[in-house]
């Protein structure tokens, strides 16, 4: 399948596009003993790629419904989310403003060059200012709290974002070519994991944390699972695992979030990971970037020796991010 453009802000059209995303079986030599497939969500759109498309769809529809003219969001210099929001703004007629972490660099990253070319206005803030991005007066202090502004948090991690990922979870259940035992996903904020965990009923969802997060991804995922559940009409439960309450749910989620494969932190690409990357040059293995997907594949290979997984069928969510590969010059 060639990437098609998501060309209208229409939920039905988006869902149809999600249903067309292909599943690709990976050569058995890469993960001996496992039947591994990749769902190629990197192909859902050439620019609004991967999980970011799902986290944005309800945000974009909501922005349009509110009559917003401008979408404001934030991220780092190589952010896949910034890239996707800039593209979506241009595509769907919003002005986009990106609040970028750190001083304005002398030379823009390829991501920021694209964002600017797509028409995004870039506003650089100090790291100290950026740390306040979750606070209520963050936008006001930057002079951005105006009428007609719709704010999307970093990474698209809000309830609308999680609902978009739940749509993905339902599409996976509908379109999976075989019955999977597990679905694996890379975690930054944990919002994508939470959306899949709370919408996929017939197999377990495993998240690989790509940053040194202590319990922050776990807590965030837990928060979104509860939020997603209470947002359902009539207090209806999303599925069996989400019926678990508080502490029990934390314990349950902890088992599904693998925190030992971050390789020292976000964006780290040490030799061991590079060597693993080089070794992945099997025919029929799709392109992956080092920040998210590569750590996921590494974790799956290390974890695939575990008894509970052996002989299993695993689906890897290709959450996109390929534009970010330009930050790695090897
Ligand atoms: C943003 C991103 C993620 C992380 O998604 P979260 O919902 O923040 O956990 C995973 N993979 C890729 C390629 C991404 O760009």
From TrEMBL:
UniProt superkingdom: Bacteria
InterPro entries assigned: ACCD_DCysDesulf (IPR027278), TrpB-like_PALP (IPR001926), TrpB-like_PALP_sf (IPR036052)
Required cofactor names: pyridoxal 5'-phosphate
Tryptophan synthase beta chain-like PALP domain sequence ranges: 32-212
Keyword tags: Pyridoxal phosphate
Family note: Belongs to the ACC deaminase/D-cysteine desulfhydrase family.
Protein name: 1-aminocyclopropane-1-carboxylate deaminase/D-cysteine desulfhydrase
Native organism: Microbulbifer epialgicus
Lineage: Bacteria, Pseudomonadati, Pseudomonadota, Gammaproteobacteria, Cellvibrionales
